[in-house]
Design brief:
Elements (H helix, E strand, L loop, with lengths): L2 E11 L4 E10 L2 E6 L10 E5 L4 E4 L1 E6 L12 H10 L2 E6 L10 H14 L3 E4 L15 H7 L14 H14 L3 E3 L4 H4 L4 E2 L2 H6 L3 E2 L2 H17 L3 E3 L5 H12 L4 E5 L1 H5 L21 H12 L5 E2 L8 H4 L16 H10 L5 H8 L1 H7 L17 E5 L4 E2 L18 E2 L2 E7 L2 E5 L5 E3 L1
Parallel strand pairs: 1-4, 1-5, 6-7, 7-8, 9-12, 10-11, 12-13, 13-14
Antiparallel strand pairs: 1-2, 2-3, 4-20, 5-15, 15-18, 16-17, 18-19
The protein binds zinc ion.
Length: 438
């Protein structure tokens, strides 16, 4: 296998504290050299990618996405979803089990793994259900799912329905050392709501979802994590109050990790103005104050990681009255561009942003899939190369994802993924990048 020399890039690898201009050499699909100057001793055979002016970092890892296969292939497939992820700079993605059938047993997990191996362009790791059929009645075979290779458990789309089941699940998580990833929503409180509850929902005449619908379940889950000493992971944290609850829990030593999406960091409920169905998401977009609290949470490591919650829908499904439209944003291909606005405005450092997309999610996944989220010598060569300040306009017709549902359609972003390398092989490359033979 021919090697690849990524030359002259700004290498940022938070896992090793590296922030310098230099070269990265990949041989046999692994990182073999990192540093300045001539490759010495000369490697047998390699191509050269000129990364002058570009950031070179570990491949991004997404702990939360929806690939819709099996069952909803009209919305997305493992093939199209993984291509979209590669365009977004992701080399490892974890897919949620709310498919049809749901991923609650060995056979369905094996199915996803075999399609991912045959048709996926990057690493796809499945998440298993917490309860059988996601019905919230009895636990799935959690240890069997672990042996099938799941990275965690979730009934995402719905919360784990009762405190009793959540307690049992967290007890298993302690023994299995895998997280229970909860979608925190008190559905008795949110029912019928379609956006954040506040002045704008009142103005638009839409039923709102109060922040308490999330925070009540976050508080419940944290209390149960304290009781059981299990591992709780909070999906798509969206409110200032949730950040504060997680902050207090971490201070008490409760084992909790948490994620936030690019859209909850950068967009507000104002996107819904004009009844924009592509801004309808669950949990709903909140306020500027919530954005700021979530950013602060990231800085303090109260929020551990950024995850996209990529949720593609067909245009026909989204094209209906706001209150009836399904929730979700197609997020892979705009994630970096929108997140870099936080770096450009000075709210996050580039190193923190990259850590939240690489070594931090790798820490949650653990070492069973190899050394992820690092450019350490000997690690599998998953590398993302991006331009830190290049303007581009979001044209959803160019998305690899089948889901064109994004409130960012037509807007200008100021950072762009230029190449994604998975296991040493380029799986996505911007038209402006050429790979030359030495
Ligand atoms: Zn969810």
């Amino acid at each position: 296998m021919k090697g690849l020399l990524i030359q002259g890039g700004h290498i940022i690898d938070p896992s090793q504290g590296i922030d310098e201009t230099g070269d990265l050499l990949i041989t046999e699909g692994k990182i073999s050299r990192l540093g300045k100057g001539e490759v010495n001793p000369p490697q047998p055979d390699y191509d050269v990618l000129n990364a002058d002016g570009l950031i070179v970092c570990p491949g991004f890892i997404d702990l939360h996405c929806h690939l819709r296969q099996p069952g909803f292939e009209e919305k997305e497939t493992i093939a199209t979803g993984s291509q979209a992820a590669a365009r977004g700079g992701f080399t490892t993605i974890c897919c949620m089990p709310n498919t049809n059938p749901p991923l609650d047993n060995l056979a369905t997990i094996d199915y996803v793994k075999s399609i991912a191996a045959a048709e996926g362009v990057i690493r796809v790791l499945p998440i298993g259900c917490v309860t059988k059929g996601r019905k919230g009645e009895e636990l799935a075979e959690l240890s069997e799912l672990k042996s099938a290779g799941v990275v965690g458990y979730s009934d995402d789309g719905s919360p784990v329905s009762t405190s009793r089941l959540m307690r049992q699940a967290l007890e298993y998580s302690l023994a299995l050392d895998l997280p229970i990833i909860d979608h925190c929503e008190d559905t008795s409180l949110s029912r019928g709501g379609s956006m954040n509850e506040g002045v704008i929902s009142a103005k638009l005449g839409l039923k709102g979802i109060p922040v308490q619908a999330e925070e009540i379940i976050v508080a419940r889950d944290l209390a149960l994590a304290q009781l059981t000493r299990g591992w709780l992971h909070i999906a798509h944290t969206s409110t200032e109050g949730s950040v504060e609850l997680i902050r207090q829990a971490k201070a008490k030593g409760i084992r909790v990790t948490a994620e936030v999406t690019p859209h909850h960091l950068t967009l507000t409920e104002e996107e819904v103005t004009g009844y924009n169905v592509n801004a309808k998401v669950n949990p709903p977009l909140r306020t500027r104050q919530d954005n700021e609290a979530l950013i602060q949470g990231l800085k303090e490591d109260v929020i551990d990681i950024i995850a996209t919650d990529h949720a593609p829908w067909t245009e026909d499904e989204k094209n209906c009255e706001f209150a009836l439209a399904p929730c979700g944003i197609s997020g892979f291909e705009t994630a970096l561009g929108s997140l870099m606005s936080l770096v450009h405005s000075g709210q996050l450092t580039l190193t923190t942003l990259i850590a939240k997309l690489t070594c931090e999610p790798a820490r949650i996944i653990g070492s069973k899939y190899g050394q992820l989220g690092t450019l350490a010598i000997g690690a599998q060569a998953d590398v993302t190369i991006f331009h830190p300040d290049m303007e581009w306009v979001v044209a959803t017709k160019n998305f690899a994802s089948k889901g064109k549902n994004t409130p960012l359609a037509g807007s200008t972003l100021n950072s762009k993924v230029m190449a994604t390398i998975f296991n040493g092989k380029p799986v996505y490359k911007d038209d402006s990048i050429t790979i030359k033979e030495r």
